[in-house]
Amino acid sequence: MVHVDFKTLSNTCAADVLAEVHNATNLVQKQKPDKTTPEPPVVNGWVFENTERGVAILQKYSQNTTPYQSWLGKGLIKATPEKVWQTIINPYSRHIYDDMLKELTLINDLGDGMKLLRLFYSTNQVLRKDCREFYVLQAQRVCENKRILTVCSFDHPEPESKDCPRGKFAASGWIVEPIVSKNSNTYSIVTYLSQIDLSHPNTSGIQLFDDEFISRQPVAIAELRDYLTAFT
């Protein structure tokens, strides 16, 4: 039987993901202002940054001090929602769209689509090896025509390593929705929300790791799309 705390965490995470994606979806795409503009135009805290590899990328700017960096990507994948869904609910598929992920450990399969995972990330640089680890709950659900896969951190009793700081995921994950093309093909509109606190130890590699890690998050959709459509 699934522990009630993880059920609650799963429900809260899903509600937060849906709310955040709804807020971002209301954004009217705007280019970033020129250098004379003190603040970027925001809608519900989100600002349109750019389009990269066919993925619209948004960043959230919070008025309050927060350690979390929030990014959202949204794009089209010419594959059925079921094909996309069956790929992303397999936790080991993260290696497809996240090449900084070096190790993934399944701690416990709680049933009902919930899994406890340990994720270990490190940089791809030859001369420097900075890393982060995350303990997360992955959960899945279907709401009407939306398939929702969420990821959020939970407290794990394992002591934190001095050599590898522990980061945290706030409500993050995927939403997969169907769209019918002019040729009557059913494809997928995919949204990927990433809200992460990378933790900042006193090391000189902080910015290098942050830049490399964060730059890959919004374009996870493009990596997944390239994989799924490579042989179709």
Q: What fraction strand? A: 35-45%
Biggest beta sheet attributes: 10 strands, antiparallel
**How many helices?**
5
Rg from Cα: 18 Å
User: What is the number of strand segments?
Assistant: 10
| Topology order in helix (H) and strand (E) letters | HEEEHHEEEEEEEHH
Low-pLDDT ranges: 28-33
Mean pLDDT: 85
Dominant shape: globular
> Helical content, roughly?
10-25%
N→C terminal distance: 41 Å
Structure description:
The chain is of the alpha+beta class and 232 residues long. Helices cover 23% and strands 37% of the residues. The protein has five helices and ten strands. Strands 1, 2, 3, 4, 5, 6, 7, 8, 9 and 10 form a ten-stranded antiparallel sheet that branches. It is globular, with a radius of gyration of 18 Å. About 3% of the residues have low confidence.
